[in-house]
Amino acid sequence: MGARRRRMLRWLSRAALLGLALVAGLALWLWSLGGELEEHVARRRGQLASVERGPVESVREGVVTQTLWITSTSGLTFSLRVLRPDPPPPPGPLVLILGGHRTGRDAVELVGDPQGLVVAALDYPYDGPERPRGLSQSLDALGKVRPALFDTPAAVALAIDALLEEPGVDPERVELLGASLGVPFAATSAALDSRIGRVWLVHGGADNRAWLEHALARKVAWSWLRGPLAGLMHHVGRGAALDAGRRVRELDGRALVVVASTDDERVPARSMDALRLAAPAGSEWIWTEGPHIDPKRPELVRELVALVLGRM
Fold it and tell me: Which of 133, 136, 295, 299 is the most buried (most CB within 10 A)?
């Protein structure tokens, strides 16, 4: 190995260590913001201050969609989109979807046929840059991520407050579907809100740290760096508080259905095993084939959503 290459490797190692130190400092700073998740959710949920409704738009004959902008007395604001039959059906299940972070409320566009049900999809309450560029944007995103993570269960509770007033909704039949990134949020929101009678976890797992480390393999070439980075991200985001394995144990006898794929390339075996061990007795497991659910694969999304809706 030449002297120049050795100097380069030493420089890279020092830069990596410096980066870890900076992230650790930021993690400690972020850790000091706010209290525990349950306290945060209670504070941020507040009361419904306003529900602003957009125009009703026809999707196809007999199906319409509408966007709702919701504001809490706490200052929490977010939007969601409703897909429902027109005219409204007799009161039946409300299906609330938490999808990937870039899908949000637009997940209803991937539903296809709502099968006579009222379906809604939530935008995550995050207003930072989607793809941070440079140090300034990265710091801005990092400072907004954890509050947004903790705000999501509060947003789910407020969304249910608003959606229970929708025509065609039976208040006793609220179902929450978390897909991919939405899995830990769906499990956590259901654990904290007893109005959710059944929770569906599609293509996700438990042990958020293992999930993060697996996801970093696509972006971080050095295997020795992925573990520490995943640990820091898990710490910053309070991953333990949002762990699906922990939260499904708190469902108090309510129904849990897990939809998993034998070919899922994005959920590591460790995460799936952790969820299987944590799931209460009597939980239902549905195994399918095919890759991980992704809005870039709309036909796969429609198949999986149709599978869920058909069982309601």
Answer: 295
